Amino acid sequence: MKVSRRGFLGTAVGALGTGVLAGCSEKLPRYLVPYATPPDDAVPGLARHYRTVCRECPASCGATARVRDGRAVKLEGNPDFPVGRGALCPRGQAAIEGLYAPGRIGTPRAGAREIDWAAAEKLFAAGLQRALDDKKLVVVVTRPETGQLGKLFGTWLEALGQAPTQVVTFDAMDRPWLRQGQERAFGAALTAVPDLASAKLILSIGDDFVEEGSPVERARAFADQRAAGGKSIYVGPRLSLTAAAADQWISVEPGTESLFVLGLLRQVVDRAGARAGLEAATLENLQHRLAPFDVAAVAARSRVDPKKLQDVASALLSARPSLCLGPGRAVAGADAAALAETVQVLNAVLGNVGQTLRFLPAAPTAPSMELAELTRKAGAGDVGAVVLHHADPAGYGPVYSAFAGALARVPFVATFVNELDDTARKAHLVLPDNHFLENWSDVRPRPGVVGIQQPVMEPVLGTRAAADELLAVARILGKTTGLPKETFGEALRQTFQPKEIEQGFRLEEVAAVVPRLSPSALAQLPSVVTFQGPEQGLPLVIVPTFRHLDGRQPRSALLQEIPDPLSGFSWTGWVEVNSATAAPLGLTSGDVVALEGPGGRCEVPAFVTNSVRAGMVAVPVGDATALLASKGFIGAGTRVTLRRTGARVERSKTDVGGAKGAEKLVRTVEGPAGALPPAVPLPSMYPPVEHPVHRWALSIDLDRCNGCGACTAACYVENNLAIVGADQVARGRSMSWLPVMADVDTSHGTPEVSYLPLGCQHCTAAPCESVCPTFATYHTPEGLNAQVYSRCIGTRYCENNCPYGVRRFNFYDWPRAPSERLGLNPDVTVRERGVTEKCTLCSQRIRTAEEQAKFDKRELHDGDVVSACAAACPTQAIVFGDLKDPTSAISRRAADGRAYKLLEELNTQPGVFYLARRRRGST
Amino acid sequence: MSEASLAQIEKDTVATMAGTTWRYWLALGSAVALVGLGAWAWSVALREGLGITGLNEPVMWGALITTFVFFIGVSHSGTLVSAILFFTRSPLRAAIGRSAEAMTVFTILTAGLYPIVHIGRSWLFFFVLPYPNQRQLWMNFRSPLTWDVFAITSYVTVSMLFLYMGMLPDLALLARQVQGWRRPLYRVLSLGFSGTDGEWRIFEKAYPIFAGVVIPLAVSVHSVVSWDFAMTLMPGWHSAVFAPYFVAGAIFSGIAVAVLLLAGLRRGYHLERYITPKHFDMLAKLLLAMSLVMTFVYATEFFMAFYRGSNAEMEVFRWRATGTYAPVFWGVVLSNSVAPIALFWSRVRNNLPALITISVLVTVGMWFERFLFIVTTIARSFVSQNWGNYIPTWKESFICLGGLGWFFMLFLVFIKLFPCMAISESMQSQHAVDAAVTPEASHA
Amino acid sequence: MPEELVAVYADPDEALRAVLSLRERGVSNAQVSSPAAFPVVHEVEHTGHSRALGWVALVGGLTGLACAMALQVGTSKSMGLVVGGKPIVAWTAFGVVMFELTMLFAGASNFLALAIFSAVSRRKVARSIRDLVSSERIVVTVPLTGMEPKLRDAARVVLGGALAEVAP
User: Quick check: bond before A554 cis, omega within 30?
Assistant: First the structure.
């Protein structure tokens, strides 16, 4: 995987041909090998891998792009990069869709007109010149850019004669209260680096760390923590993925989470404050501030059992070190900073600081402008030009409506985007930026970690790098002081060693900081959240999801297609309503309700469930934007009213929880050392099937799986799965090979949710195989249940005989835009209508690895073949391997006492096995 | 009996073929129109995909397979009853045997359309046929669908030959009787049959052999079709009672359709002399017997599900009786198990309108019964994420109706081209009956 | 001198009486051509290959069985694919097609035998005589070649009024 300069340039030249041809011509090239002059080390049919960084959200996980013949076809994680450690979340897996999306624009636009780059640069320069002449401000509004591009904005503004502080960072998913809370608690600006894996007990105050923030990193650490025997408690209003993965879910009256934490803190301070190593003054201050929050008062107000509160406190005190995280968006109200401060105080008193909660100095940020200030100045007419960079404030509805209104008063608005969004539609000049897979940049998710983003292919369309356009415009204006002479990418590349670019990151030494609790901690106590909105409305809680993230447009088709595993909705948002709240309204799951809040209204289908507290509702972020009072994406603080509209939306069925009469697929064991009773081998009339060389299999650890759906998304991308659209999904015709199912267990009081990815089980005695009249499905000597599309005539007998229901039939030919076809994985057939398909254990990857091993004249090692789902799983829940290899990871798992197979009594002898979920009960 | 009445048989039979009334043309026209409608609907499926049906995950077999099984079932009574009546030397066979055998042949030809129509890639249906090809592709003989191919092909071939064989004497007679374009047709088709004593001896030796082949074949064919379901592991399907259940159901539905066809023929061509109340009485008794067998089978299935204690199976049956399709289930029970009980009373058996009503109920009930057990099992199998529902779409129903039209079209054309009653056998049977009635003066 | 006597009857009973009379008088080589298998047909002397039919059907059935076995075993071995954990040669499953093909071949060979044997058998009666048969006419034929004059007369007497002139 050497990326020499020569090799890269060679690739660039070669791929340019592809890019230009593919981008410019209507017809796709007819020859199979698109290179006219291939680079020296490019072998047609073999993939090249380039390390880069995923830019779908500010977490910036490392990514590896697999490039085939000049086109990126798959993204994996970067196993060496500390953020992500080899995996990507579902958004990252689906990111490649953005590269080939039909909605992507390739030419600049002025208003509705398409113009070429020369004209666009002239327009841009003219707009800026006018602003400068009028002595007005030029402001840059950008998504978080923590690397050199962020610095470039400041330098660029300086070159124009503006202040370098005129940069606004727009991050709708930002959680500033966490930073503010830290600062108040420890008296200094810091970067928190929690070490979840080392904690014996994790207490999350509404912090959905598996779904927001840095989800991949945290999810992996969390799974490791569980595997090491750690426990976890989630305090929050609903059973998010994080709460489902935790051992205990405690819900309190919405808005009273702060009380709960204060009550906990009081208990901890009372029982162990003296031994916490605090200064006397600090301790006294704490005791004084916490006096009113005794158990009874807190329990009464937050409607939680007082014993629970005390149990949690006891657990925190006995399991050391612990880790308290939060507050997450779901429970953040107007006072979120104070609540964050309280959580940090709790950490400090428990002695977690320096152990599981490490701190680095705050990332050095250049001073910048706040969005509110820009809104004010723009409204007053002081702003002459606004340059937006992947920021879409107008797309967030009423939350940022003030800014959107102010923007209308700015004489010149230019924006860099990949696809048209709401702000772009209002802008004077729209400039298509390269996709992150086509661009140079770097990101610093935290001090000491630099992720290097390099282009993995030539641009598909005629886009250009935003940084280069800014430099070009500066050159036109003749104001290039301090700006790089060459392209931004070239300049950036020179700041890194080739080896660093090759590995995709650079690590720097940063000294940790071990702060002490500030004597004035808890100067401002968090108060109970007051909910604004209609009097008879219900408190609204926001649900972070990978699908919607912050509700940004455009929404990824793939992510919308994959249903939410618990509610089963796809292509739409939903509102979670407790059954007790829904009953008087006569609501059932699927009924569309109209929600009205102070910010507006939205119509979404209802999900009636016990996974959300009674007397409140929960809505994914994307749909909640319409409802919120304009205060940014605070999770708690709005009330909404519900009204049935009479319409209905069908959901995908994701429930495998053993509804009465159905088989229960998820099994649990009690305690860290629990094991299942050994399986009894069933008699058979036939001799056992022999696998002479390999027996490929998949194992899924339900204790590690948190239902994120990265495996589902990866499977879609790897295997050219078709996206069928809302209507067909509602009819139950989704093509997903590895959907994530949910099991809701209500037998222990509070519901406990486990997630289970359910794909083809690759049975040794597969019932689907014997009934196919044309041998379109059979058992390969390596243990796969193979599906031969060319032999399938579509009798669908196999679908009928599969007890797991994992086979998919192509009811139509699913349409793909020409650009989307560029992104297809060339190793996998695209199936036509009338053919059945299902998980193939990534047989193309097995084949590639076997051929490579044969070419290298060696045996296959464990880890040479990794299926897409196993590679994608952020928590390493899925392990792929050869059961005939006694040293392989999967063989070790097979010997685990928790291993079991689904529907074992049917004697289908599946090759896929699961590891039972561990229940650690309550504290 | 007098020679005149024996010759009358031929005259009456020929009369059914000769004049065509406007009613006939209306019936044929409607049948052809239905075929056109079905063909159009299927062409949409071919062009766009099976998404135009109501099929989804998990219900992958629906109205089309129901109609397939239904038609195979209906095909059973014809030849089977004809062969059985042959072995029991029943005098009732003569008048109804031909129509019954024709019904068999044409329902199988109709049923044979559905496996081609319902598969996802119909243009590749020949993959299930055994022929050497460069892909070295052979079929999977463990699959009940392959068994279906062989069973149905054998059955349609043997039934056609059985029908044809029985028709040889009649074709020979007709070749001499009629004029015009039919004459050379019948002469060629009669294979030169001339009614010499040697030929009759050969014929009378070959025919029982054939009937003896047909009966086990008929039983096996619907058993094989039942194994399409019983050889899976799905709850509600995986049951050993399916073979006899299907065969009984086949005879049941087939008798009902035979009653309707014969009543139609009788009325349309004034064959009251030949198709007598005795025929309907016998058919009614068979209908009743089969209804009782069906009731027994329904009860057995429920009993075995609960006795076995399998969660999944109990759930299927519970849902069948109380879930989304409960109205269908209870309707089926009413029409298949309850309504035919009226046939215990001879007053009902001899009342043709009542018998026709019950037959219609049974026919419709049997279609829905197949629909019910096919759909409710796969809609409610082991894993709850795989529970679903199914309603056929309009286009799907048109394809089913197209098959119905196809059957009627073939049958109507047949009765115009070929004698709908067995002439020579009727003559022989009539003569035997008369000889038994007047035993004197037969011999010298 | 006509080569044979041809009598036409409309009533099957009369034809039967005639044949029985002939037999009483020693004429036992009468042939009957009838539109239906009336009892008169069975009174004629036994000729033809009808006995072989059973054997033909049996042989046909066994051929079908052998073909089915060969087809299934041969193709399964040539494909060599494991399905459902079952062995390559699965006799239990193969039994179904074996049965079906047995029945098919038995029936088809039976039909073929019928066609062929009938064609051979009917040549014993002249074409012109066979064409006389209709739903109202049963033809009784007595070949006269090599018959004693006494018997000839007796036959003529029995057949009497039903005699008809037939062009050879």
Answer: yes
